[in-house]
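Sequence and structure are kept together here, with a separate record for every protein. A complete record is shown below as an example:
=====
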Amino acid sequence: MVKVYEINGITPVVHPSAYVHPSAVLIGDVIVGPRCYIGPLASIRGDFGRLILEEGANLQDTCVMHGFPGCDTVVEVDGHVGHGAVLHGCRIGRNALVGMNAVVMDNAVIGEESIVAAMSFVKAGMIVAPRSMVVGTPAKIMRSLTDDEIKWKTSGTGQYHELAVRSMHTMREVEALTQVEANRQRLNFESALPLHLHKNAAAQ
């Protein structure tokens, strides 16, 4: 069971097509939209401000979302938040990427189709124009992104759309094996779901 907690009479909302790992924690004013993926040990703590993940967004392992009272923290459509990132009172634009262990602070706005590099620190109030590469501590806008870089980002987010479906239909808690099987198979994304589930996911 997903760890979901009401506070002050407000209960998190998770769309039926979203996948939330059972070890993630959702508290209070949290809204998880369609086709989102929430990874293991993510903390989405809406005990002060509202936290919103729009359609197709992903929030990966050990990420944290939080914000001050009266403030919304938003990941827009197809926003992609890498392992260990922290979002506090900010807005991540449509199809933007926040890299692993990056921090985005209050009232910062990451423009659509932008990339925040891993380990970057985006200071409070920074406004990032669309299609920007943001790097460093403190973060600076280094250049505009190329079409190929945006295609790469979009493709990666598509893999997380697929992972949300794959996780809902094939992930289950089991006992670990005690030794490696002969001819141990590797993950094959094309065959990881029954054919009709691939078709349904593509139609969404």
Summary: Confidence is low (pLDDT under 50) at residues 191-204. The longest strand covers residues 43-53. Residues 34 and 55 are 5 Å apart (CA to CA). Residues 147-170 form the longest helix (24 residues).
